[in-house]
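Just wondering, can you check both lines?
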Amino acid sequence: MSALRIGITIGLHHAGEALWNNGIKQNAVFLAEALRHCPQVAGVVLVNTTAVPVTPALPWDLARYPTVGFEAAKDSVDVLIELGGQIDGAQTDYLKQRGARLVSYCCGFEYIHAMESVLFRRRLWGENLFVNQRYDDIWLIPQVAHISQSYFEVLRRQTARVVPFVWSPMFLDERVAAIEHAGEYQPRSGAKRLSVMEPNINVVKFCLYPALIAELAYRERPESIAILQVTNAEAIATESLEFITLLNQLDIVKEHKAVFLGRYDTPAFLAGNTDIVVSHQMENPLNYFYLEVCWQGYPLIHNASLCDDLGYYYRDNDATEGARRVIEAIDTHDAQASSYRERQRALIERYLPNNAQLVATYAALLDELMTRPLR
């Protein structure tokens, strides 16, 4: 097989857009890093599918991450992986006429987004929906497969397959460079500061269960918990009567040991405000936040089944078990902080772009893709 030239789509919203402010764009870069390690790949470019011009104003290294518009890429790529920006029917026709392969790389919770859009009248696409049925393959990261695989397969009339999740600390390293101790967890005496940093923008990652877990731990060991800090919650804590009423049932709230804050940069908030992170997810059992927290050595109390060997795992929605893990972290984490961080990084190695097994899997996927007849 001749050396493959691969494009991965992104969707720029403005000419100076940062690469690290969006999980989808990070996913594109991490995938690019992994594919560059595949022996049959000659090069990888990011392909912008919007009308925003690609200029030197983009605040990332264009030598390391070459970025072009679709028009500049359409005659050179052998494989276009549609990840962060969608191409239309005419662009699909053009690529197919050239013999290029088209892959849909699914790394978002489209089924949930569609469901919420329908039920809560949140417009996503209106009358302009284009469902491309000419993909040569559909690749899904593991955490979206359970809820979205059939959704994609039925609408796109193509069988999907689960592919390795890729993550790198490269952006995290940039963000912690100016933080003392590189933002890594530092043991601290006294009562512990619990932090909950769920986005609170849909049902997938919501702060209520972490608050319930913190409440149970506080009831058992009030002297061991200094404060519960819930970020990304300022709006619901002031505007949602239901949320206010529920949380006012908790001792940790009634005794003024809980605060509900706005949005914060994760590494800085961890380094300056946090001893223990409490998390909960529904249909999102692996994500960047967990890996960032564990890579930096912070105790993560979580129910993410795809990475149950990381941090302090509790099952499903078991708040009692979650509270036990909080107390375990309070009692034992500081004594093993250094070895814990080393252990977490060794476990996370399986997701890194240069992991030999991960690279081999993507190389095999590309080999199989190029033997398929064009759709």
Observations:
- The first helix runs from residue 23 to 36.
- The chain has two domains: 4-168+352-369, 174-350.
